[in-house]
RNA sequence: GCCGAUGUAGCUCAGGGGUAGAGCGUUUCCUUGGUAAGGAAGAGGUCAUGGGUUCAAUUCCCAUCAUUGGCUCCA
């Protein structure tokens, strides 16, 4: 007999050789029907794996992440089988479960797969699924496994197996299909009821662009057709919130092929929104002791040689600009920090002067690969809400935490309540990717981790994600399509002060090197506004709205009164517009609603006589008639209610 | 940059070897209205660009450019 401990702490005795599914059945038949995966002593096992010793067993259903993982991983096997049946000479490589579904990377040889083929593959997959084939795991020797794939001429699987230890190699079989696999499947293919293949994409073998490009088929599957339908509806919903679509509809920004790809053009409403965001941050930064500086859009090549950016990114950047006669080389500014370092150098500093905090909304230009451009989130010219803090090593901890406070204030003011943070450290295996001495790196990394702990942020540590000159703390949020984007960033840098030979005089009358903090709460104005658009679906906080009030006259007869209402609101610094067109009120309301204008004021004969407005709120409808002054107070109070002050 | 898809009116999109269509928007006229589309008429397109096949190309083929889903990259 063996003792199986369940997650609730209860311990049950079973015959050795009992399977997780048997245990599930012993709890209840109904529960067992939903169990699709299991972990024994924290190791993923099949639901049919015999258990031979005491241990902790966790049973997973579709509701658990682990269950979904097993479900989608198993679906990838079904996909592979369908592909093999339809395209006999292909070479399978890897096919994992991902956050939303699964994919399989396949070498199709000379065949090209297109979207039209997906339907046929889906049909084949459903046919296989309906066969209710059981998944079973079988151990094999390394030699046998190698032999199997060498015979097939599948060099990818051979490469995978060569990197595995003998004795740990398993195959998974279902129906007549076999694949190298470490396990974690659902009991049988019949549990997969709904399948949708989403897209085809190219993907490099092992993620290395020097390797052969394979064809990746993305799909998702569900235990019920209804869940698939809901998922597809969710995707539709996400599309409606896409910042590229909303940006066009709300006339915020555009792109022009003639101006160049990745170079956004801000339309009046978008520019106004941007300006308001900038002013919001400027106000908080002023309180926090920042001073604004301004630097040019280009800089001498020498500047970036000193900073190290040229060596690191020069080759992949826009090519240097040559002056006509002297042949001097200038670069489009890819970073503001070298300029700010030169500002720091304009005069000698005492430790009593520090910290110095230089801030700039600095527009930078970077050559991003054409395939990488994406709306406003990945562009070639963008404006950073940049600042650099030059401080003594003693001040680092305090300054870093102050920056965290500022970032949290910004996020809180804009409704980003769900964010995570990432501490990005060096890749210990690739020291050549970084500049600066390892001791300083350690100091910087330790400073960030301690600040994050003190501030009780929810964080993950990612090795190898640091900037080349220093470690960083990034703030990430998710967009409407579930993609994670980096917003704010705070970086500790001992290296640039070294390279620019920055100094201050200490209390000991000796010269010392300051520490630098790079920081940008928004990250870039472009990206931030994109994410804000998707986050709010275009319903920005009232204080940011390009147009807060639409005054809709019932007919042209009330044009004069609507103009009067507009003037009075503008006196109270409320952004309003009038709509006196020869259209019905229903149409004017509809358009204002679609333009997401927060308040609509309907004015007609009654209102003109009484000096009132009939107020309609976006998304809510009629909220009644009131004196104009009352409405003005109402909206001003609403704006005040959502604007928090930044307190240092 | 690489692999796939897409590019038709200002916008959203249909069409298809014989030089183009809808809805919305826009213009003009009628209508002067009470909380999500009042009515009528008109204007508007070298069908992304450049080649090729063909009696004939917007349609088929190739290339380029842009957009897009991924991969790689991201100071």
UniProtKB/TrEMBL annotation:
Q: Where in the cell is it found?
A: Cytoplasm
Query: Broadest EC class?
Result: ligase
**GO BP term (any one):** threonyl-tRNA aminoacylation
Which cofactor does the UniProt annotation name?
A: Zn(2+)
An annotated Gene Ontology molecular function: tRNA binding
**Domain spans labelled Aminoacyl-transfer RNA synthetases class-II family profile:** 242-541
Q: Name one GO cellular component term.
A: cytoplasm
Query: Sorted alphabetically, which keywords does the UniProt record give?
Result: Aminoacyl-tRNA synthetase, ATP-binding, Cytoplasm, Ligase, Metal-binding, Nucleotide-binding, Protein biosynthesis, RNA-binding, tRNA-binding, Zinc
Q: How is the cofactor bound?
A: Binds 1 zinc ion per subunit.
The catalytic activity of this protein is classed by the Enzyme Commission as 6.1.1.3
Binding of Zn(2+) occurs at: 337, 388, 518
Where does the protein principally reside? cytoplasm
Q: Which residues form a coiled coil?
A: none
Q: Which SMART domains match?
A: tRNA_SAD
> Which reaction is recorded as catalysed by this protein?
tRNA(Thr) + L-threonine + ATP = L-threonyl-tRNA(Thr) + AMP + diphosphate + H(+)
The record's listing under InterPro entries reads: aa-tRNA-synt_IIb, aa-tRNA-synth_II, aa-tRNA-synth_II/BPL/LPL, Anticodon-bd, Anticodon-bd_dom_sf, Beta-grasp_dom_sf, TGS, TGS-like
Q: Where is the TGS domain?
A: 1-61
Subunit info here reads:
Homodimer.
- According to its UniProt record, which protein family does this protein belong to? Belongs to the class-II aminoacyl-tRNA synthetase family.
Name of the featured protein: Threonine--tRNA ligase
